[in-house]
């Protein structure tokens, strides 16, 4: 389960979790028939064609109702068949069976290549992309693309920054470090003064580790869908090794912890001031608030600063997490399905509700660049204008990455090697080499030619 899904778990308890796979399959409503069955939502305009969709955003009912109210060409029949991995398992079953998939599916961006290579998703570039392309930034579009083809409409993202405890920084005379070298120096200063750990290097956040390696200059995967069985893999380049070596050094010096994140123990440490910083994405305030951080005696102690840089003269912004709406190859009418994918979570009310309730960090530029969002004084950060100062500039500067068709295997393999690194059974160089060998072997077993 990815971090994005973990942070939403508590919110999804209010959604009908027991919905069966068939509850809103592509057979739930024939496009053009004007009928729908087994939908979570009510269809207000009965005479319009219906597009079925799966998704798990906590405010999906509102989002779908807004779309249906505003649209006079098509209506959406929505259901939640499970969150993240549960949904993907059902989608994979439908792919194998050749039926049972919805017309539109909510999917995390790093999973798009996994399903695209199975011909389970539709390139929506020819179905209205030119009319909406200016609504999102270059990096957002790249994250939902495979080569020149577009397999999703970006909805939310996770520009990465450094969340920190103001009280700890003030106590030890620390200013937010602008570089990773300064981060290490500040960590040493706090330790020498008897202070807490400066941060945490966890094995279970492989996507974040990958992002920091990319920030350093790594390019883990190169992939061209015109050559679908050929992939470039570079997991043991110097940049990747340098990042692992950096965190290995901080771990050995006792400057950072190694607790798995998103556990009760880790959250307890965050609340109790065990860590001075938390390197995470823009969705973190919502996750932390839901976990009880920033409340009671913890209120008003948090602030956020830009992510430290490896090279301050050549800053690189990175992303962690993000979801999109994709059209499946089982869609009865791909053009209508694309209209839904482009239009869902794109109206002002849905976007505003999403970011105000910390459900999404919006990628739609009319929200991302709106004065209301940019100037928002974030309660978790004691009224700091975090979007203006940190998250929006990071999101606008993000250039996107290339994901692999076997991202989950890569993340699991990364977790294994980082765990070994933390335990001291391998060095950073060995961890990178073993990770590279493991993933290359797996790719070849799956029939890929590795370059």
TrEMBL record:
The keyword Lipid biosynthesis does not apply. Pfam families: SBP_bac_1. Gene3D superfamilies: Periplasmic binding protein-like II. Transmembrane segments: none annotated. Residues 1-22 form the signal peptide. Keywords: Signal. InterPro entries: Bact_solute-bd_prot1 (IPR050490), SBP (IPR006059). PROSITE patterns: PROKAR_LIPOPROTEIN (PS51257). PANTHER family: ARABINOSE-BINDING PROTEIN-RELATED, BLR3389 PROTEIN. This is Carbohydrate ABC transporter substrate-binding protein (CUT1 family).
């Amino acid at each position: 389960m990815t971090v994005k899904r973990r942070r939403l778990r508590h919110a999804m308890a209010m959604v009908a979790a027991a919905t069966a796979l068939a509850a809103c399959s592509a057979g739930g409503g024939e496009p053009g028939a004007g009928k729908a069955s087994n939908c979570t939502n009510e269809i207000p305009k009965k005479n319009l064609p219906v597009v079925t969709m799966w998704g798990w955003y906590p405010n999906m009912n509102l989002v779908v109702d807004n779309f249906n109210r505003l649209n006079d060409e098509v209506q959406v029949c929505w259901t939640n068949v499970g969150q993240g991995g549960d949904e993907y398992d059902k989608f994979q079953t439908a792919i194998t069976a050749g039926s049972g998939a919805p017309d539109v599916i909510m999917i995390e961006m790093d999973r798009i290549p996994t399903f695209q290579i199975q011909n389970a998703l539709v390139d929506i570039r020819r179905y209205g992309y030119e009319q909406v392309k200016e609504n999102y930034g270059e990096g957002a579009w790249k994250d939902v693309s495979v080569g020149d083809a577009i397999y999703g409409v970006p909805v939310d993202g996770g520009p990465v920054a450094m969340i920190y405890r103001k009280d700890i920084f003030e106590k030890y005379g620390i200013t937010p470090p602008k570089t990773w070298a300064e981060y290490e120096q500040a960590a040493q200063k706090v330790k020498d003064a008897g202070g807490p750990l400066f941060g945490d290097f966890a094995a279970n956040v492989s996507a974040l580790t990958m992002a920091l390696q990319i920030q350093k200059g790594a390019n883990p995967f190169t992939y061209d869908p015109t050559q679908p069985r050929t992939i470039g893999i570079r997991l043991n380049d110097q940049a990747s090794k340098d990042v692992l070596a950096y965190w290995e050094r901080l771990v050995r010096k006792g400057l950072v912890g190694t607790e798995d994140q998103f556990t009760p123990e880790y959250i307890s440490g965050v609340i109790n001031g065990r860590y001075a910083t938390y390197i995470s994405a823009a969705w973190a305030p919502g996750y932390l608030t839901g976990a009880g951080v920033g409340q009671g005696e913890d209120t008003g102690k948090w602030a956020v600063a830009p992510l430290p840089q490896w090279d301050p003269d050549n800053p690189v912004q990175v992303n962690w997490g993000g979801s999109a709406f994709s059209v499946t190859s089982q869609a009865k009418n791909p053009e209508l399905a694309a209209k839904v994918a482009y239009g869902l979570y794109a109206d002002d009310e849905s976007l505003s509700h999403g970011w105000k309730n910390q459900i999404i960090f919006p990628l739609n530029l009319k929200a991302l660049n709106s004065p209301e969002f940019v100037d928002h004084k974030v309660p978790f950060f004691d009224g700091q204008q975090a979007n203006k100062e940190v998250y929006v500039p990071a999101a606008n500067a993000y250039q996107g990455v290339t994901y692999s068709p076997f991202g989950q295997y890569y993340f699991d393999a990364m977790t294994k090697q980082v765990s070994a690194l933390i335990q001291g059974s391998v060095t950073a160089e060995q961890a990178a080499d073993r990770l590279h060998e493991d993933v290359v072997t797996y790719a070849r077993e799956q029939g890929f030619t590795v370059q």
